[in-house]
Amino acid sequence: MADAITFYTNPMSRGRIVRWMLEEVGRPYDTQVLDYGTTMKAPEYLALNPMGKVPAIVCDGEVVTECAAICAFLADRFPEAGLAPGASEAGRGTYLRWMFFAAGPLEAAVTARSMNLMPPADKAGTLGYGTFDAAIDALEGAVSGDGPWILGDRFSAADVYVGSQINWGLMFKSIPDRPAFVAYADRLRARPAYVRASEIDDALMPTG
After folding, report:
1. Could you write out the DSSP letters of every residue in 103-121?
2. How far apart are CA 63 and CA 78, in angstroms?
């Protein structure tokens, strides 16, 4: 079948981001649930992703890993879903800007803060994120525009990826619960694709 998609994941992983993206795309996909330390590190999976981490997808034989890359790939591969501006379309730069910001400076800043690994203040200029507060202020600006989404009235894969960072950050207290973040997360959680994806992954959670 053309555009056959296999999705490798675990419900307790960043795979939830890609599950949501797949539900937004609306194309059929096959799910392979892997376990930490066993099938995730098995030779068969390491041949696809040498990092031994999920998520990953295989679409018509092409392997894609890393959540932001998978979201961007799926948005471009299935343009009929309307989840990304075209290469020459208005908004493409803004879309890429915030997708890469969340994957790079934002995640680095949040991780460093969560693990008490913040560098000395005099080293901020050498870091991609500068300071944690600077990264969070920039993020707030991205979701505080004229419309409900990063691209205004248009929902995109950037909202899936950036929104997942905010959603998890609020749940795990790694991002401050500023009103703009809370309102944005509430809008995201109301999307039918988000609800479907959450229900699917919640049903896969271990019960023992």
Report:
1. IIIIHHHHHHHHTT-PPPG
2. 16
